[in-house]
Amino acid sequence: MSTNGFFSKAEFLNHWQGHRNLTRNTIEKFPEKELFEFSIGGMRPFAELVKEILTVGLPGLEGMVNNTTEGFNHDVPFNTKEALLAEWDRQTPLITEYYNQIPEERFPEHFNLFGQFNAPIYENLLYFVDNEIHHRGQGYVYLRSLGIEPPMFWDR
């Protein structure tokens, strides 16, 4: 993501927030019990995947803004669908707030995300979106196997 690259800084944020909206709609499609218990092939239940997304994106941005490299912890106490969605909604505007505090000139700068992933900031930002898409895809497989139509992937 260079200053003359494919996306502007604002366009990337809009793209990311579109994916977040789609993931939120995916969470809403799950029945409560299956959100926390349903699994295929040894994969984690979708609630655990959502917890991972919640403990990577915003905390990673906070680290970039505050220049901290603390580790991550996916073991968070969101044990209901309502709690997951409330945390999702709490984080959404904060992602915009923290993202906007990172000057575009810093995007090529290496940052040791969570003290483990030393890469340019733009690669870490792409990772946040890629990770979310990957886990949402797992959620789609779960929904389809439960006989539930997932949201259309283009409806962001």
Automatic annotation (TrEMBL):
Belongs to the DinB family. GO terms for molecular function: metal ion binding. Keywords: Metal-binding. A divalent metal cation binds at H135. It comes from the Bacteria. InterPro entries: DinB, DinB/YfiT-like. It holds the Pfam family DinB. This is DNA damage-inducible protein DinB.
